[in-house]
Design goal:
Residues 327-535 form the Ras-GAP domain. Strand 14 and strand 15 (233-241) form a beta hairpin. The strands form ten sheets. Strands 8-17-2-5-32 form a five-stranded antiparallel β-sheet. A five-stranded antiparallel β-sheet has the order 12-11-14-15-33. Helix 7 crosses helix 8 and helix 7 crosses helix 10. The protein has 19 helices and 33 strands. It is an alpha+beta fold. The longest helix is centred in the middle third of the chain and has 32 residues, at 372-403.
Length: 834
């Protein structure tokens, strides 16, 4: 899709290596939304069109694709969110999409941070959907100062100053609320003024209550949305213990608003809204400065460079043997990214191949298990080969989605169809339907294999080098079975990379939506065909599913094409391949993190125009002006043959944040706050097409600008229009922001810049819990006489590599202990959550 009028293309690229970041505390939240079942029907057809919205502390971060016309949807979508460790909960709303009206809420699942902490290995299972109660849909914080005035024996007052609030729930159609505060104490109530059209109100009002004796009552501060017609909407509350306040004397700060759980809940809908299968895992990480991890990184690099030695147990073998199946994928991707950053990924993969081939193995089962070698190669292809995958599969996948041909070869699943013939209708025979399906499938397969066959030069050099090593190693291991070295390559390229992407293109970002039932069946059959070509034994596949026999000639031709392709792929010697690992460390194959069309808005008037000060030369969005965020600046330019109009240096970006829906009438607008050439703070407003695009753009910008020295701590989520900010109604354009920035909230993507410190931290955390198992597994695997002396070789010296590893882990544990901040003192003011 081209940029078109008002839709400039924007590209975010990774900047040059920045200064190493200081210690960072963050939470990594892994979310997999698997499927739903027994959902209620919301449409008159007796079905629903469900999708999920994931909110973290009531902020929408993720939207799954819609699965049409089903009450048992399958999504299988995975996400990883990096965020500040102070978040409270994750809520997953199941929605029913409606084309002509507002989408219906089916139900939600709420998982608190405390629940995730209780399951360090992650939560996995079915959870029942609960009804969405408006009084529980609260968000935001309120800034209060509470104190006791007067001394014992005299008249004492309980004083509460309501200063401001931020990020309140939006209850009105204009995308805002009309908030006021209601205070209750000792049977008395007082109310603040109403602030119209703001989720960031400022009151600065003080309320006084005569302190009861004894002061055992609670102070309740409630926030409400005022409505002219109908009842007011509840926005949240804070409850304080006045006894705690007497001890403290005075307390001031931001307090989170809590839902009202004092009202009885009706259970009529409990269990009738269906359920959701989820996998959620929380990891709290303290990432130390990168130099702290150098001993661990150097040790791992040295182990890879030393290679396999006969009669010795390699550290990588121990890691493979002691890593459980549940976390092997995670360990594999951390190792791959770590060695990519060190320029040693080819050597690492080659060592894995050599160690795997040294085990007793059969040619027909080679690399079919989920060993560390298999998982590492699979992760390596995803990290380095996604652009290549998109280029190869994209055209054929798009054709399948657009044509929606009926393809079926299994007689037990064939549906006969009415077809027009000279103005009359007749029913096609089963044989005609299957022959027609075979032709369609053969056409798709032929197109795809032709594209693959021509793609060898486009395959990233580091992938070609890895496959060349694999090809040679397997050929040396099985000289009497020369076809096995071809199967070894296709077992990864076809079975673990191409076929899964064909079967579920949404999960590989090839499509924005899941396939419908007909398209999904076509993709499944095409993926089976590619698997059979990859197995290079179509007769074996036909034995399991004999109805694939009509496809046999095409499969035989495909095998020949695939062999020719692999021969070219592993035979290409290029200078650029030698550069990988010798010069600059190879990261993911392209520096581009994110690109696509966006709309630029101005703050006055109507229309998609460039924000004031964002570029030189002016320009109108209506003439197709474009934006590109390159490796150094953000470039603002029209399509060729026009010239570039202006730039924003990445180093000058102060914040990348969301914009309130009411500002431009859209909930998918972001702002880039930056300093222009004259030193003035300016803002560019860019509109995205959906919540996923919005958060992906914000994530990309935050990653490449995360180390900027002048990032803002607060910002304005509205716009300055007329004489005030639309969010907090401040009159000063340069006034302080009314909401906190969220620099640390990012989404993990395959195209992320490498973060060696984060990967080293994850490996340290994994190895830290394996020290006893590593020691035991070493003596178990070592086939020497020393291993028989005492239980598990007790008393015998450990090999140098393992001893050094334990020493490095001990030093890192000490660094973490020193880096842990002291526990904050317990607050004297007790905030209650009921």
């Amino acid at each position: 899709m081209g940029a078109g009028p008002g839709k400039p293309r924007v590209r975010v690229s990774a900047p040059p290596p920045a200064r190493p970041p200081a210690m960072a505390r963050r939470s990594a939240l892994s979310i997999r939304i698997v499927e739903g079942k027994n959902l209620p029907a919301k449409d008159i057809t007796g079905s629903s069109d469900p999708y999920c919205i994931v909110k973290i502390d009531d902020e929408a971060i993720i939207r799954t694709a819609t699965v049409w016309k089903t009450l048992s949807p399958f999504w299988g979508e995975e996400y990883e969110v990096h965020l500040h460790p102070t978040f409270h909960s994750i809520s997953i709303y199941v929605m029913d999409e409606d084309a002509l009206s507002r989408d219906d809420v089916i139900g939600k699942v709420c998982i608190t941070r405390d629940m995730l902490v209780e399951h360090p290995k992650g939560y996995s299972g079915w959870m029942s959907l609960s009804e969405v109660d408006p009084d529980e849909e609260v968000q935001g914080e309120i800034h209060l100062r509470v104190e006791v005035q007067g001394s014992q024996g005299s008249r004492r007052l309980l004083c509460c100053t309501v200063l401001e609030a931020r990020d309140l729930a939006r209850k009105d159609r204009n995308g805002a609320s009309d908030p006021f505060v209601r205070l209750r104490y000792n049977g008395k109530m007082q109310e603040s003024t109403v602030v119209k059209k703001s989720c960031y109100p400022r009151w600065n009002e003080t309320f006084e209550f005569e302190l009861a004796e004894p002061a055992g009552e609670k102070l309740c501060v409630e926030v409400w949305d005022w409505d002219l017609v109908g009842r007011n909407d509840f926005l949240g509350k804070v409850v304080f213990s006045v006894q705690g306040l007497e001890v403290a004397g005075q307390e001031e700060g931001w307090f989170r608003l809590w839902p009202d759980k004092s009202k009885p809940r009706e259970d009529e809908h409990r269990g009738s809204l269906g359920s959701l299968q989820l996998q959620v895992r929380l990891r709290d990480e303290t990432v130390l400065p990168s130099h702290c991890y150098q001993p661990l990184v150097q040790l791992l690099c040295q182990e890879v460079k030393s290679g396999r030695q006969d009669g010795q147990v390699h550290l990588v073998t121990l890691l493979d043997e002691t890593t459980t199946a549940e976390c092997r994928q995670e360990v594999a991707i951390s190792l791959v990214k770590l060695f990519l950053g060190q320029g040693l990924v080819k050597e690492f993969l080659d060592l894995l191949f050599e160690l795997e081939l040294a085990k007793p193995c059969e040619p027909n089962t080679l690399f079919r298990s989920n060993s560390l070698a298999s998982k590492s190669m699979e992760s390596f292809l995803k990290v380095t080969g996604m652009p290549y995958l998109h280029a190869v599969l994209g055209p054929t996948i798009t054709r399948v989605f657009e044509e929606k041909k009926y393809v079926e070869l299994d007689p037990s699943k064939v549906e006969v169809k009415d077809v027009g013939c000279s103005g009359l209708h007749r029913v096609q025979t089963e044989g005609e339907v299957m022959e027609q399906g075979r032709q369609h499938l053969q056409s798709y397969l032929g197109e795809l294999l032709d594209t693959i066959g021509k793609s060898a030069p486009a395959c990233p050099p580091v992938i070609r080098a890895a496959f060349r090593q694999l090809f040679q190693r397997v050929g040396e291991r099985f000289p009497q079975h020369q076809h096995v070295k071809f199967v070894a390559v296709t077992s990864f390229l076809c079975l673990r990379f191409f076929s899964p992407a064909i079967m579920t293109p949404k999960l590989f970002h090839l499509r924005d939506t899941h396939a419908d039932a007909r398209t999904s069946r076509t993709l499944l059959l095409l993926a089976k065909a590619v698997q059979m070509v990859g197995n290079m034994e179509p007769v074996a596949g036909r034995a399991k599913e004999p109805w694939l026999a009509p496809l046999l000639p095409a499969l035989q031709q495909g095998i020949s094409q695939m062999k020719d392709f692999i021969s070219r792929l592993v035979g290409m010697e290029e200078e650029e391949e030698e550069e990988e690992g010798e010069g600059r460390p190879p990261g993911p194959p392209a520096s581009v993190v994110k690109e696509g069309p966006l709309i630029l808005h101005k703050t006055r008037g109507k229309g998609p125009l460039l924000a004031a000060g964002a570029g030189g030369g002016g320009g109108r969005g209506g003439d197709g002006s474009g934006v590109a965020l390159g490796s150094h600046p953000i470039h603002i330019h029209p399509p060729p043959p026009h010239q570039r109009m202006g730039t924003i240096a990445l180093a000058d970006i102060l914040a990348a944040e969301k914009v309130e829906e009411k500002s431009f009438g859209s909930s998918h607008v972001m702002q880039v706050v930056y300093v222009d050439a004259g030193g003035r703070q300016e803002t560019a407003y860019l509109q995205c097409k959906c919540v996923n695009e919005l958060n992906q753009w914000l994530s990309a910008l935050r990653k490449v600008c995360g180390n900027n020295p002048r990032v803002l701590r607060a910002y304005h989520p509205g716009v300055f229009r007329g004489d005030k900010w639309s969010c907090c109604h401040q009159k000063e354009r340069t006034g302080p922001g009314c909401d906190r920035t969220r620099h640390g909230v990012t989404l993990q993507e395959w195209s992320d810049p490498l973060d060696p410190a984060a990967e080293a931290q994850r490996l340290f955390h994994h190895l830290q819990g394996l020290q006893g198992m590593l020691r035991e597994k070493y003596w178990e695997l070592l086939e020497t006489e020393d291993a028989q002396d005492g239980p598990k070789g007790e008393g015998a010296p450990l090999p140098e590599g393992l001893s050094r590893l334990f020493g490095v882990l001990g030093e890192l544990e000490g660094c973490h202990r020193l880096a842990q901040p002291p526990d904050p003192p317990a607050p004297a003011l007790l905030q209650l959550q009921a």
